[in-house]
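User: quick one, fold this
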Amino acid sequence: MNTCPFSDLPPAIARLRRDGRGLPIPFTNHIYPDGTPDFRVIDPKKIRKCAKLRLCGICGEKLLGGVTFIGGTISAGNGLFTDAPMHEVCARYAKVTCPYLRGDKSYATTVHPRQKEEGMHFAVNPLVSTIRPEKMCFYFTVGFTLMKTSHGLIFKAMKPSKLEWWE
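Assistant:
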């Protein structure tokens, strides 16, 4: 059954693998051994791959030219992001499909049942809040570096060329 709410997906997103509901699985999301995605968990190996090869965190394809990050007021101020850079079109897709980015309280911050089944533990990066900021933004820039901290991997974006806010 295809429950993907979009009939006209951006081509790079349309090429992504789908979950059982027909939703595209973003490149950096964790996928369990049986192929089930956990949309709330980022795979650190894929984050490193995005940084090293300059790939989009949503579609996994090459980033040419400028990149887009998504964050709240703190990220916009310090240029630090946990999610990988994206193509602008992929970031705009994420904004309308991700419950967290939409401001929909249906997103869960509790342990996924699969984590218990598989004996896995995923920690929330203490540098990141699980509470959605009141304002979010697209942070447009030309470059970034990946930093390893004691709490995990963080993208340090170059100065923004533009910020575009939403609530």
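User: anything notable?
Assistant: The beta strands are 29-31, 37-42, 67-72, 80-81, 136-141, 144-149, 152-157, 162-166.
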